[in-house]
Amino acid sequence: MSSKLGSLEKKWVLYDVGNSAFTLLVTTIMPIYFNSLAEAQGVSQVDYLAFWGYAASISTVIVAICGPILGTVADFPGWKRRLFAISVLIGVLGCMVLGVVGHWLWFLAIFVLAKSAYSLSLVFYDSMLTDITQPERMQKVSANGYAWGYIGSCVPFIMALVLVLFYDSLGMTINTAMLLAFLLVGLWWLILTLPLWKSYQQKYYTGRSGSPVADTFRRLGRVFKELWRNKRVLLFLIAFFFYIDGVYTIIDMATAYGTALGLDTTGLLLALLVTQIVAFPAALIFGRLTARRKPENLMLMCIGAYFLIAIYGMFMSKQYQFWVLAVCVGIFQGAIQSMSRAYFARIIPPERSGEYFGIYDIFGKGASFMGTTTVSLVSQISNSVNLGVGALAIMFLIGGFVFFKASRIGSAQS
Length: 414
Prior knowledge:
Elements: H1 7-27, H2 29-40, H3 45-74, H4 79-97, H5 104-127, H6 129-132, H7 138-152, H8 154-165, H9 174-191, H10 194-199, H11 212-229, H12 231-260, H13 265-289, H14 295-313, H15 319-346, H16 353-363, H17 368-382, H18 385-390, H19 393-407
Helix pairs in contact: 1-7, 1-9, 2-3, 2-12, 3-4, 3-5, 3-11, 3-12, 3-16, 3-17, 4-5, 4-9, 5-16, 7-13, 7-15, 8-9, 8-13, 12-15, 12-17, 12-19, 13-15, 14-15, 14-19
């Protein structure tokens, strides 16, 4: 197997570099900016964290409903590329508009739209993996996507960080600095999407029979029935639902959590920048380890590490502890995401990757509805954000157990 990425594989990886800038913005600067808007308009710290969590939850519900339907449509000839472009454009425009919104409620509404479009773009993007490479290269290509996404997203993030932290020295207001930051990230995302959009050709697809709407729901119903017969895929998806729930919740709410604890804003942003830098080599290392070690064992190790991270979060109150958390998350974040994506891509029919990745997104990003809602509710009920984060440990415990059961099922069932 060649160690170098092909031209189309590189363009596929490049989209990860582009969209990861939006992810980093959502997990760092955006919740801090929302906090300043909400606080100035009389929203308390605990309610701020809860409202941010509820907005993330609404977004995941939207994706959970639309993802499998649009994913099924994407398997029709020519539709995957078209739907991918539409979702990216909505996400990019939403990102840019956030820079001019002044009311916290409108900010949350547009955030939900932009984040939903971003997540839907990943349904089509992830399912492209079966078209742009061979099965034996999926783990390597997937790992490169996450790795280069982490390090590449640091470029616009650092530029945005300079604008936000030193706006006064640059002779501008904080509102102007935030507008430029949102515009910068949106343009970065759009420009790095173009190479894949121009070059991608759908290799695997299914034919359409009868009404496209009826055919879509008929095929969607068929794939759910197939899951009951394919225990390997079903158990993996159940496990994925729980453990990735915790992973995405930590990603979505890390900065909001640190801010609610009253930690220094600059320190939080720099710590999360370290997460991206650490995640780059870590994802590549785990990608190479899968050639010598069973991916199932490596995934169980990552799930166990996240269980300990959630427990650690219960006792966090100081800045240096957040730095430790950021480094630990960086080591395992890209690994567990890339291995999950490649593992799933190998055990599904390639010509129906859109259908299956639509379901994958329900169990994945859609699952974070439970995580973000759990953190928000436990935080408000107990008046402690530490207990809210600690509640995620149960997600990793259940996910690890079910994944262990799935890994015992032979590959012959795929």
